[in-house]
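Example record used in the benchmark description.
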Amino acid sequence: MFRDQFQPFVFRGIDIGNDPSLTPNRERNYTSRLVDCIKRNPKLATYVKDLESNLSSNTIAEDPCLPELLDQLPCISVLGLSSSDDPDISSRCMSWESITPELRAATVKICALPTIRMLYITSFSELPLCLIENPYLSDLSIGNVHAFSDMVNLRPPATQVGSKLSNYSLSTPSETRFTSLRTFICGYIASMPTDWIQAMMENSTLSTTLWNLSFMCLFDETTNILCIIRRLYMFIFTSTDSPADIRAQFTPSFSLSYLRYYEALAFIEFLKFTSNLISTVNASAPLEELRITIGDLMPQPLAAELLSAEWKQLVATIAACRPTLKTIKVKFRFGHCDKQVQLEAFTLVQEIVSNDMSGVLLVLKAADGTKVELRT
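Model output (structure tokens):
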């Protein structure tokens, strides 16, 4: 009796490939046992709602039981797909074609389930668009996805826009594509193709359904680090594109007439691009909440940035959003530094931001987790 009561809780979530205490061979045994359990009691498959699958190990990616397991799960609502077990290595990105045909077919099938509501994909390239086109999908998170293999299905040949040739215009969307999508979290590496992002955002259906957008592109000319913290709406991406390249990637701006929440993330060294991130959404969106996080900073560079023309431009950009905004939150995350220097920086930041912007929730967070919040 108690077994029947607890089974829905025990089998609600399945995590494959993310447990560091399990060797790949033990993971295979775990998958095999799950398949056997479900074969003996098919009702168990209906209890599984949340599935996480990490294919960073070839032993797991080539496990013949994994496609069989996916085929037996008819009620998945939250699905996470990843190919990297180290979020600090941006070069680790698995090609869709390198996955076994059986696993590709099972993944396409599970992504098309009518129960799917949330999908998280990280560190893949050349994915098919069908993975993200489920009409019931309401929450989509994409990080370190270099390209989609069938972009032709998302946009037509380039069309003339004024005197400039646009590579981003969309074809007439399918009747069901993105009809339920409310939240889109996109983190990308700026040196990789971004036309798929522009094409998605210009989709006429998405432009009227999307409510929440987290859009992050961060880059450093001397390093190449990727840090993804999934489900926390935070992506830190680095690359080597020039400022002009970044601005050109998202012209024209996105037309999202129902957008309510927008979040942008940047490194302090690239403060001047934060305005461009905000400007990717045009005035048609009745924004109610804007969040800006500027991280990985040290006191002296921060002081210089807050006295720069780029900071003034960001202030002006935020001011332009004022008519509809109910909440503006600006957060500075500090790196490790001397406590006294950090306190002095806190005081300086408070003074500058309070003088430049009123009605803003300012958050200063130290490397040790302590933080100060105040409203200017």
